[in-house]
Every structure is written in structure tokens, then in C-alpha cells.
Amino acid sequence: MKYDTPQILKETVLKARKAQIKWQGLSIKTRGHYIGKLKTIIAERSDELIHIITETTGKSKIDALSTEILSTVIASRYYVKLAQRILKREKIRRSSILFFNKKSYVYHEPYGVIGIISPWNYPFAIPFHEIVPALLAGNAVILKPASRTSKVGTFMQSIFDETGIPENLFRVVYLPGEKAGNAFVNSGIDKLFFTGSTDTGRKLASLAAQNLLPLSCELGGNDAMIVLPDANIERAVHGALWAGLSNSGQSCGGVERIYVANSVYGKFKEKLIENAKKLRMGFPDDPSIEIGSLTTEQQKEKVSAQVEDAVFRGANILYKSSVYTGKNSLFYPVTILENVPPNAPAVTEETFGPVLVLEKVKNEEEAIYRANDSSLGLTASVWTSDRKKAFSLSRFLETGVVTVNDHLMSHGMPETPWGGSKGSGHSRTHGKWGFYEVTRIKVVVDEKLSWAKRDLWWYPYSDNLFKALKAVLFLFGGFKKPKPYSTGESRPVKSYVNSGFFAALWQLIKLFKRIF
Ligand code: NAD
């Protein structure tokens, strides 16, 4: 494919900046009017989009429709409404009487020009949840899609153009991954969003640090699913297969490891295999195909290497499906593994393929320990009929998202924050938290008594001011007298506090006289 150069990126940023200044001057309602058109355009052009997504990724038609298209139509409606509520000027409540004369407001200001580097696994939905809040908040956006899915980027450019938004406000640039980091960090953008692997995120963070460029990272996952003895096993099995295998397992928040309570392990395993056998693998032109191909050759190599390594270390293959052989060579069999040693990469690292690792656990403590025993922490799930227990266990899981009796789907809920902990990154997209990520917080503190001569604590300093401030300390600090302290050099300060609460209050009242 033909790539742009870093110089073109710089020029694109300059043009975007000019467009952004005018865009920021528009009301949120007007910006929302343009973005509001997106849902209709996406719905109208959904067949074209399904074709582009399935062709470039190999995912099934229903995965493309549900996780990429339907979810973004729902999100654009939601974000337009949310923006008007969230981006409003916020009044801040005063913390103490000392600030009786101040009124404070928070503004959510756009960064300016936001760069987005996005992955190939959800090439439409992932950048969409960043682009739309960023534009609504008054930013310009420059998107670099993954090279493998550059056609989705081109489609995005065309739908945003179709809304009639000002020229240069949203631009797609094409850069190879190895050049993109340097190019973006030195392009003049004001903030960078990166979604991709933890390794690339780490490299990008060190590059961004050179310019102190704000960076939001959404990185890899290695999600655990915990099945307790009282779980609805039928549901847990169907959930594990959908959340583990949709998009051929190439979901950052997909199920990778399943920890099942001893007492239901046999039943869960039997039903998991029985249902896995029913899944249809194939080319996505047939809507009833559940499992598509992997997206890249490197991904196929990585998945194969992890499975071979696990088997070499003693894992059992409980199930391996046959492989569809038509059209392309990127299909990988649905594979279920058991007895994988805890230090094998199939357990410790993200696999990102149609592979599930199944393990027995003795009790809830062991399940939590095993789930957390990973350097990644994107999402996790707890399957039980005891909702109270699920909520209490969810607090111990070191992830950004926990779903109860479900998994993965919350990425499709634009209202819930998405993001992880540990090596999965610490940023949040979606919901009001997504808007906070594309805006700088600015506080404006206003003096109500601008006719007043001075504030309480301004010059001149004096013994009286010192005493008055100590009185404030006494009143606000739990009515405790200061413990006697002397270095032997400083002159001891006489304390009003000997006379108690009313004396302190009187000092405070006298303090207010200073403003006149
Ligand atoms: P990747 O890191 O290889 O690439 C992601 C993007 O970064 C692509 O556009 C790529 O061209 C670009 N890139 C590659 N090297 C770069 C560099 N040195 N500097 C700057 N940009 C560079 O990841 P991938 O293989 O495309 O995507 C899969 C990974 O993304 C998985 O680890 C998955 O878990 C993760 N992911 C995370 C989330 C999340 O929300 N946390 C969502 C989707 C995918």
C-alpha cells in the first residue's frame, strides 16, 4: 500500500489545528448535529462496511455487524446526548468558610489535535469510541489505522466527510507501524491515543515521555473467567465460547483462561466440548459462520507457537476442531487445553486466538489468585447465581472491568468505562470517562468581592495573622491544641488556644476584618 510520510502527517496536523480552532468555537449542540448524522450514514452503508471489515479481518459477518456496526450506531446517539451533559461548565462546591468569597468552575477544554493509532482487531469500533467523543469535545482528530485494515480507515474518512464536518477536522493518515510512533510524537499533536499490544504501548510511552506528550493506552488482555459451583453451567459454557472465540479469539477483552470450581469442572468441560463441536468455521460470506479466520500470518504463528509450547510442557488438548481450508490460509482450529503449566505463555501471555485454557480450582481464593496471576488486567468475569458473592469477589480482581455472568460485551455499552490495569494500560474510553480522556480540565476561580482590599491571608503578615490562622487550624483540625514544640532557638508562640473554642472563633471572626 502507499504510505504517507511523517512530513505529510505534520502538514495534516497544521491544517487540522486551523480547522479545530473554529470547531471549538461552535456550540456542543452544533457539533452534535454533525455527529448525529453518523448513525444514519453507518446504517445506510452497513452492507459496504460489513464487506470491508470481513474482507480485511476475516471475522464473521455477525461479529462485524454486532460488535463493530450496531455498537457504534448505539454509541453515536448516546455520545451526542452525553456530551451536552458532561462537557457543560461545572460549578464546584466550596470546601470551607475561608473561601466564602470564591466561586469556582471547571471547564472541559479540548486538547486541540488528537492523534489515534488503532489496531486491526476491531478496526471500526475501537477508534470510533475515541474519535466521536474527541470531536464532540471540540478536538480535531488524526487517525492512523493498522495497515492491515487501512480500507476501514478510508471508509471512516468517507463517512465523516459525508456528515459535512469542516474540512481537515478529521483526517486518516497511512503510516507503517514502525514509523508511526516517532512520526506522531513529533508531529505537533496535543495528545495521543494508542490501542494495541503491550510491547508497542511500552515503546510508545517512552517516546511520548521525551515530549511529555499526554498518552492514553489501551493494551493487551489475558482475561480470566471464574465459574463457581452454583453457576448456571449452560450459560457459562455458551458465554465462554462466545466471549472466547468471537472474532476468532482476537478480542483484547476475550476469555482466555477459565477457572472452574472442582465440583462442576467435569460437567462444564463436557458441555464446553459438546458445544464447541457445533461451531461452524468458514469464510464470512455466509452469515451463519461463527468462527472466521485469524487476521494476520504473524498472529497465526504466535497462536500456534503458544499451543505447541503448552503441549510440549504437558498440556492436554481436550478438543481441536478441524480447519476450514478455503479462500485463505489464516484459519486456526478452535482449541481447548487443560493442565497447562501456570508458567506457560498460553497462560501468562495474551494468546489472541481461538484457544481456551481450562483449569480446575479448589475454591474462590484460588480462583482469584489464579485470575490475578498475570501481568495483564483488562477484564474478568465471575459466573455464579449468588450476585452478592459475585460483587464481593469482583472487588479483588485486578482488572478495569468485571462482568457478572457475562464477558467481553461491555465494550459494546458506550456508557461503561473501558480500560484495564497493570500491563493492559490505565486509560479509559467510553462514557463520561471517555470524554474526560479527550479534554483538559481547567478550573476558573472567581473572586466574588472584587471590591475587597485583600484576601484573609495576604500581606501584611503579623503575629495576629499567625494567631488567627492557628485558630482556624484549631477549629478545622478537630479542636486539638498544638503539642508544645521548641527547637530551643525560636521564640515560643503564645497560644490563643488556651482559652478554647470561643476564643478561636473570635480570632476567626477578627480575621475577616482584614478584607476591608
Ligand atoms: P500492535 O501494537 O502491533 O499495533 C497496533 C497499532 O500500532 C497498529 O496501527 C500498528 O501499525 C501500530 N504500531 C505498531 N508498531 C508501532 C510503533 N512502534 N509505534 C507506533 N505504532 C505502532 O497491535 P495489533 O497487533 O494491531 O493489535 C492487537 C493488540 O491490541 C492486542 O494485544 C490486543 O489485546 C490489543 N488491543 C487492546 C484493546 C484494549 O481496549 N485494551 C483493544 C484492541 C486491541
Keywords for this structure?
516 residues; alpha/beta; Aldehyde Dehydrogenase, Chain A, domain 1; Aldehyde Dehydrogenase, Chain A, domain 2; 17 helices; binds nicotinamide-adenine-dinucleotide
Tell me what you see in this structure.
- The protein folds into three domains: 6-93 and 102-219 and 432-444, Aldehyde Dehydrogenase, Chain A, domain 1; 223-409, Aldehyde Dehydrogenase, Chain A, domain 2, CATH 3.40.309.10; 451-515, no CATH class.
- Helix content is 42%, strand content 16%.
- The chain is built from 17 helices and 17 strands.
- Strands 10-11-12-9-8-14-15 form a seven-stranded mixed sheet, sandwiched between helices.
- The longest helix is centred in the first third of the chain and has 26 residues, at 61-86.
- The mean pLDDT is 95.
- It binds nicotinamide-adenine-dinucleotide.
- Nicotinamide-adenine-dinucleotide binds at residues 117-122, 126, 144, 146-147, 177-178, 180-181, 195-197, 200, 203-204, 218-221, 252, 350, 352, 378, 420, 424.
- The site of nicotinamide-adenine-dinucleotide has 30 residues, from helix 7 and helix 8.
